[in-house]
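Dear colleague,

As promised, here are the two records you asked about, laid out in our usual form so they can be pasted straight into your sheet.

NAME FIELD: protein one
SEQUENCE, THEN STRUCTURE:
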Amino acid sequence: MVEQKNRFADFIIYSILAFACVATILPILHVFNLSLTSASEVHKSNLLLWPKEITFQAYKYLFSTNALVKSFYITAFITIVGTLLNLILTIAGAYALSKPELPGYKGFMVYIVIPMMFNAGMIPSYLLIKNMGLLNSLWALILTGAVSAFNLILMRNFIMGLPGSLEEAAKIDGCSEWTVLFRILIPISKPAIATIGLFYGVYHWNEFFLGVLYLSDSSKWPLQVLLRTIVFDNNMSNVAALNTLSTAGQAVEPANIQAASIIFAALPVLVVYPFLQRYFVKGMVLGAVKG
């Protein structure tokens, strides 16, 4: 009887998972096929499971200008530099906060936790960036998220969970704090560093709101801002580099361009994620109390 109940429960669970997989994959498959469909076939079906006429005209349309490629490089720069800066500041801050004997320890923790629940808002943030002279600068997108309080606390908890004897033994051997950090703690904290680095990287890659808020020069738009403009503006009238192609005489529907842009922007994450999925799973319990 118990075995039958377990089988029934497994059937329900697998059925729900199968439905979730189909519901997730179908939109991606539809957009991918739409990007490869000829202009004459775009409006003949609401759901494209396979293109009747495969054409790469939409991708040729996009890559015939450097607007998309330039935005890709801008996003790659923001992601790489931003993630490196995030990791440096987060690891250094977490190591310092992992020591309860640090002067002002409780005050620092309160100062870090409060922004997780409250923030000044969009207008004060904009005025701060303006007064710092960072408007229309890529550093506005990098510096504003230099440290995530959530990731800082996760990293701190992970370091506090490491055996204290390692640090004590290193200091007995004459190691300084920096040596302990770089030669002892960082090598054994690679899973935690990979996890928060992945969180930071995905955040920078997908960020578009700060780009809309701080960047009015379309030549400096990251990929997600350009993608937003392409998707919401069928005529691409807000993107000068793409607008020059409107007289090229190519048979491309706006829907094709939108679908091709979405696939281009999502492809790097779709390619990298399967190899890093285990770090996402490990990140779910990062810093948790283990019994």
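NAME FIELD: protein two
SEQUENCE, THEN STRUCTURE:
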Amino acid sequence: MARGSGTPGRDAADKASDAAEDASNSKGLEVAARAGYVAAGVLHILIGLIALGLARGGSGEADQSGAMGQLVGSPGGTLLLWFCFIGCIGLALFQLSEVFFGAKGLSDKDKLKARAKSGGQAAVYAAIGVTFGRYALGGSSDSSSSASSMSASLMSNPAGTALLLAVGVGILVVGGYFVYSGATRHFLKNLTGLPSGRAGTAVVVLGIVGYIAKGFALGVLGVLIVVATVTNNPEQSTGLDGALKSVRDQPFGVWLLGAVALGLMAYGVFMAVRSKYQRM
């Protein structure tokens, strides 16, 4: 039977599906999604700056809440928070559309991987966008305290402990993938139209340094979560801020934290550049 000649209910569903796919391919959504990469870049640059301050003996929270808190009250900070909110939500919607309409021409196995990856990224950017929106509206949050509280809640029962252990191992795996992507330049497959010469080389170097630094930071975070779970000590699970401060407290940790901070800033700049060259 030809499409459009079925029951009214099926016709309506087909039209809704076509409208959703058209929206996912719209220029407006693409622009918003690219703005999401800029928002992620801003976030990483701010976290890197705070981490660099910690390496130099300063104070602060080197995580999402600390970075967004830096924008509150600063000139143009509220406007930037709203920009980042719109960008992250736009990128989350774009990734969600990829779950339903992307991965065309791939094998069933590769489609499942691509859709799972897009779904995970949609959830991550949606969560970051909501946090940007909360700060833009005058609210706040404490990532470290939230991480500890959630860990304590999960550790109160065997199923929660198993889940938390799986989360820690999962973050370790993601961190390892970031290091691998940076070391092998695997991230370049997502980019198109890179300039030649020094400009293109600079983008590649930023990606290599940034991916490896972020992978290292995620690796430390994953280790802390696993250790906190095994020792039943939720106070050790304090999110990214706690992970970076634990690096600082190690021998030569100040220098290592400084290097990671610069790497996170490089990743932030790379993400901003990525907004232009990302294959959509």
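A couple of things worth noting about protein two: The chain has one domain: 8-277. The mean pLDDT is 87.

Best,
R.
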